[in-house]
Specification:
Elements lengths: L2 E9 L7 H9 L15 E3 L8 H5 L3 H7 L3 E3 L11 E3 L5 E3 L2 E2 L14 H16 L4 E9 L1
Parallel strand pairs: 1-4
Antiparallel strand pairs: 1-7, 2-7, 3-7, 4-5, 5-6
Length: 144
């Protein structure tokens, strides 16, 4: 079973009270169906602490603070490490290994990208982050 760190970009316009729900909405289309014929993950879980952004956490309602503790940050305070396996942008597109989900045949390729894609991912990731300056970043662990 593979697991991967995924960052989800949630636009500020969603509002602090709806961050977790919006993350679920963005990720749901990428879930594997029962026959595992498509999709990018089988299930999701919270990750170990990834971020340290008390300013962002302080602006969340109490329920969100508890569920997103150390797993949410403002994009302006996003650390350079760790580099996630995938990034889900506000339009719901799953970007991974330097490619878009539509570039792969199935989730069997979850961790299998060619060398050029793996090498280009850090640059592409930074480009995607730069293109979405008004977002919160939520870290989640995807299992396949």
């Amino acid at each position: 079973m593979a697991k991967a760190l995924v960052f989800v970009l949630v636009p500020y316009a969603v509002g602090p009270a709806h961050v977790s729900g919006h993350v679920n909405q963005l990720l749901e289309p990428h879930a594997m169906p029962d026959d595992r014929s498509s999709g990018w993950y089988d299930y999701l879980c919270q990750v170990e602490p990834v971020f340290d952004d008390p300013i962002t956490e302080g602006g969340l309602p109490d329920k969100q603070k508890r569920s997103l503790h150390k797993c949410v940050c403002d994009i302006s305070r996003l650390p350079s490490d760790p580099l996630p396996y995938a990034l889900v942008t506000p339009d719901g597109t799953w970007h991974a290994g330097g490619a878009n989900i539509n570039d792969y045949a199935s989730a069997q390729n979850f961790h299998v990208a060619n060398a050029a894609e793996r090498e280009s991912w850090p640059k592409r990731y930074k480009s995607l982050i730069t293109a979405h300056p008004y977002c919160w970043v939520v870290a989640i662990r995807a299992h396949s």
